[in-house]
Amino acid sequence: MIVLGIESSCDETAAAIVKGGRDILSSIVATQIDVHHKYGGVVPELASRMHIEAITPVVDEAIKKADITLQDIDAVAATRGPGLIGALLVGFTFAKSFAWARKLPFAGVNHLEAHIYSLFLMDQKPAFPFIALVVSGGHTNIYYVTSYNHFELMGQTRDDAAGEAFDKVAKLLGLGYPGGPVIERLAKAKDPAAIVFPRALLEKNSFDFSFSGLKSAVARYVHDNTVTTADEKAQIAASFQEAVIDVLSQKLIAAAKFKKCNRIGISGGVSANKTFVEKLSWKAKQKNIDIFAPPSELCGDNAAMIAARGYTMIQQGRLCSLDHDVFSRTKID
Ligand code: KG4
Ligand code: ZN
What we know:
Blueprint: E1 2-7, E2 12-19, E3 23-31, H1 33-37, H2 44-65, E4 75-81, H3 85-102, E5 106-110, H4 111-117, E6 130-135, E7 140-147, E8 150-156, H5 162-172, H6 179-187, H7 212-224, H8 230-258, E9 263-267, H9 274-286, E10 290-292, H10 296-299, H11 304-315
Parallel strand pairs: 1-4, 4-5, 6-9, 9-10
Antiparallel strand pairs: 1-2, 2-3, 6-7, 7-8
Helix pairs in contact: 2-3, 4-11, 5-6, 5-7, 5-8, 6-8, 7-8, 8-9
The structure holds 5'-O-[(R)-(carboxyoxy)(hydroxy)phosphoryl]adenosine (KG4) and zinc ion.
The site of zinc ion has 5 residues, from α4.
C-alpha cells in the first residue's frame, strides 16, 4: 500500500510517499523558519498563509521525487492534531479533498503518535515494549509503548516543553528562532559544568517535567551578570543545555527502570540534538539500556512519520470521514 502523508501542524509544510508503512519513497519538508525567525517564534497567522502557498508544490514534489503517478497512491494520511488550528486545517483539508476526489481511504493522524512512529522507520527499530520520549517545541512526554497502538502516558511537562525552553533561552540571548540548533552549536566549545543551573526533578517517582524554573534561572543570570559577549552567551548555552539533557536523561532512565524495560526511543525536534543522544546513550549503557534515536531528518516535523502512522490506522480501518475536524490539544490514549 502506497500512502501519501501530509503534515502542517506548525511551521513545516511536509508531504511524503511511504510504501508498506516503512519504505520512504520521498519526504519533502518546506520549512518556514526564515519567516518566523525575525519574530523569535512561530506567528500562527503567517504559518497558515504559508502552508496554503506551499501545500500544492510540496505534494507535487513528493509525488515526482517518489517517481510515481497519482494513480499509484492507495491512501492518504494527514496530521489532525495537536497543533495550530489554522495551520492544521490547511494540510488536513487538502488531504481530505485529495482523498475524496480520488475515492481513497483517509486517516487523521495524531502528531505525537506519529513522532513515536518515526522510530519504526529506522533500519533498527525498537522491539516492544519500550519507553518513548516525544520531545519537541510543544511537548515533552514520556510513554510506555507496548504495541503499535498502545502508548501509556507516564509523564509530561507541567509548563514549558524542552524545545520551548531552548527557543526561549535563545530569544533571551538574542540568538533567534529556533533555539535548539544554535544553542547546540555554541555549546560545543564550552565546559557545561561552568555554571550550575537548577534541575527540576519534581517528586520521587514522578516522570513529569518542569522547565520554566530553568528558563527563569537563565533569565536571572543574564540580567545579574549583564551578559553581552558571544563567549558569555556560548557558556550559558552549554550550561543550560546540560541542565536540560541531565533532567531528560535521568527521567528516561528512571522510567525504564520503573517499567523494568531496557529500551528507550527518543523522537521530536530536540532528539536531533547530538549532545543529548551521546550523553543519554552513555548513561544508558551503564544500565544496559539501548537507545534508539532516528536520523535528524526524521526527528523534526516530517510527513513520512504521518504516512507511517496512517498506514497502520488505514489497515485497521480507523478512517476519517469528511465531517471530521482537526484538534489543537490532546493526549494520546
Ligand atoms: O518536532 P519539532 O520539529 O516541532 C514540534 O512539533 O514542535 O520540534 C521543534 C523544536 C524546537 O523547539 C527546536 O528548538 C527544537 O525542536 N530543536 C532542538 C534541536 N533542533 C530542533 N532542540 C535542541 N537541539 C537541537 N539540535
Ligand atoms: Zn512535532
